[in-house]
Write a structure and sequence with these properties.
The chain has one domain: OB fold (Dihydrolipoamide Acetyltransferase, E2P), CATH 2.40.50. The protein is built from two helices and five strands. The protein has helices at 2-23, 35-38; strands at residues 28-34, 48-52, 55-60, 81-90, 93-101. β4 (81-90) and β5 form a beta hairpin. The N and C termini lie far apart (60 Å).
Length: 104
Amino acid sequence: MRYIFTLLLFAAALSLQAQEKKSNPKPIIVEASCGECNFGLKGKSCDLAVRINGKAYFVDGTSIDEHGDSHSKDGFCQAIRKAEVKGKIVKGRFKATYFKLLPN
């Protein structure tokens, strides 16, 4: 009985570790900008988006205003920037778990 419990505990730990790897991928470098102003996405106002493999997605988990003035010379509404991100695409949106704007 003790061995079965140990085996089940070990299997649960492996399963949890596998889930953590899926939810915390290595960061990737993407283009980041205003989805409406620079990526041609339809929306009601200026919203942060990323372009991955040529396709643009609105971002959840951070906002356009958390990364400086979007209408400044190098802001998201004026320029396409590079960012290091982690997350996944869910229902056509990028769910960011990590977002770091890279220097120009």
